[in-house]
Amino acid sequence: MTKSATVLAGLIGVLAIAAGFAPARAAPAEENYRLYCVQCHGTLGNGEGINQTSGGLAVSPRNHANAKQMSELSDDHLRQAITGGGDAVDSSELMPAWGKTLTAEEIDELVLYLRELCRCEASRQ
Amino acid sequence: MGGVRFSVIVVAGLVFLAPASPAAALDGAALAAENCAGCHDFSGPAPATFQGVLERRAPDLFYAGSKFNRPWLVEWLQAPTLIRRAGVMFLNNIVNEDGRDRIREASVMPCPAKLGAGEAEAVADYLMTLEDPAMAVGVVDPERDFKARKALRMFTKQLPCIGCHRIRFRKKEMGGISGPDLANAGARLNPDWIYARIENPQYWDPKTWMPRIEMSHRKREMLALFLAAMK
Predict the structure, then answer these.
(1) Same domain, B153 and B70
(2) Does residue A124 belong to any structural domain of this protein?
(3) How far is A66 from chain B (nearest CA, A)?
């Protein structure tokens, strides 16, 4: 079943490209957040993910739902933190670098997604 | 989903019922096809979509020969213990209570394989043939000296590894749970594969939630030696 499904998906892909549709798009930000960030930042984005609640992290993950804290971080700071990890912005190294896993476009979309989670904007750029 | 659960019970049942016959007469590939392929993928490729990852029921075994140490396989297949405390995919097992995520323990189970000694030998022989010929071998020499304190600092402080993996150091257990438990990594895993898995996680599993982290060969080798020493 999986094999024929894969073949079918492949066929649809080929047809889509042949028909002039845009090629495979980057995964949407919400999906990437669930796959890569929820494990530490939590399903609510509040920093209470399973790696935190199981006692795995010596530094608490940032609460992405906290408008006051998140508005203090510029979009550029968020982009740098995601791309280069905590180390790149003088935060904890427990925040991994995602620049070799996600594309620049996916990271830009994650920054927009974080702004949805905190329902806030950067107070300065 | 009822059908799936039913077939799981049937499959698990078959494992118990398989007659104990001498190892030489057992065909590991046939045993695996019959008893294990309902959950494990023996041919690849790994899922390339988020949906595919959510639906994966068990770890991929199509590169088992590159990944595992045979003696560990033979022993473990007779009495599997839990390796992934958050399950194969943590998102399928989360409950949120009072704003905090935790794992619903009832939905996390160890591998149901409980093979007889002869069966375990035969299946391990088969699994060890499933190699990835592209993996570099002889990269990590497990006999080589390394600074355990320094490696521990890398694993727990300079890099985010401890956030997702549990390890044991001087009898102390620590670490997160979204990745496999590495406290026994040295017994389980081939040191060269440990190195290759850290170097490029997405080569092995395009949608794995472990990041690819840049570091020098020397540091990666030290991490591999550190984990290979965990037994």
Answers:
(1) no
(2) no
(3) 13
Look at A25-39, A59-73, A78-92, B148-162 and tell me which has the smallest mean pLDDT.
A25-39
Indicate the pLDDT class of residue A124, thresholds 50, 70 and 90: confident
Number of domains in chain B: 2
Range of the domain at A60: 3-118
Classify residue A74: in a domain, yes or no. yes
Query: By residue range, what is the domain housing residue B185?
Result: 148-228
Interface test with A, best of B4, B54, B91, B100 (most A CBs within 10 A): B100
Q: Tell whether B29 and B123 lie within a shared domain.
A: yes
Rounded to whole angstroms, the Cα distance separating B68 from B129 reads 11
| Nearest CA among A77, A56, A96, A60 for reference residue B215 | A96
Chain B residue with minimal CA distance to A41? B101
Residue B15 vs residue B202, higher pLDDT: B202
Burial annotation B125-148 (CB, 10 A radius, 16+ → b, else e): bbbbebbbeebeeebbeeeeebee
Residue in A38, A40, A51 nearest the CB of B91: A38
Domain count across chain A = 1
Confidence (pLDDT) at A24:
45
Same domain, B28 and B103: yes
Which of B72, B88, B79, B60 has the alpha carbon at shortest distance from B15?
A: B79
Instruction: Dump pLDDT digits (tens) for B119-137.
Output: 999 999 999 999 999 999 9
Looking at this predicted complex, what is its ipTM?
0.88
> If you measure CA to CA, which chain B residue comes closest to A39?
B178
3-state secondary structure B106-120: HHCCCCCCCCCHHHH
- Pick from B75, B97, B127: which residue ends a domain? B127
pTM of the model: 0.90
Task: Tell me the chain A residues in contact with residue B50 when contact means C-beta distances shorter than 8 Å.
Answer: 27, 31, 34-35
Lowest mean pLDDT across A8-12, A41-45, B168-172: A8-12
